[in-house]
Write a structure and sequence with these properties.
The chain is an alpha/beta fold. The protein has a domain at about 35-95. The protein contains 2 helices and 5 strands; from the N terminus they run αββαβββ. The protein has helices at about 1-20, 55-65, and strands spanning about 40, 50-55, 70-75, 80, 90-95. The strands form 2 sheets. Strands 1-3-5 form a 3-stranded parallel β-sheet, with helices on one face.
């Protein structure tokens, strides 16, 4: 019985010490802000028919927006076939 009492007191002491210590404040996560400049991949020759390879058109749209110091590249509804896309800083690929 003495052993249970001793263990109970030790556990309560540990819980009390642990709960009295404050956790470090977590950093605030901010939403990224993108410029209002927007281009549509269709303007660069992309086709959402599920047959056309759109890699060049999408990469061109991303490069144009990146050269303008950022903005949004819109991918409208459709089936867009593509190879590797190179994303760049300050470019939001958006549907």
């Amino acid at each position: 019985m003495r052993r249970k009492s001793f263990l109970t007191i030790v556990c309560l002491a540990i819980v009390t010490i642990a709960s009295s210590q404050t956790m470090p404040k977590q950093p605030t996560v901010r939403q990224p802000l993108f410029r209002k400049d927007t281009v549509n991949i269709v303007s660069f020759g992309a086709k959402g028919d599920g047959l056309f390879l759109n890699t060049i058109a999408i990469n061109k749209a991303v490069s144009v927006i990146a050269a303008r110091k950022g903005g949004v590249v819109v991918v409208p509804a459709g089936l867009w076939i593509s190879g590797p896309i190179v994303l760049k800083s300050n470019v939001n690929l958006h549907r």
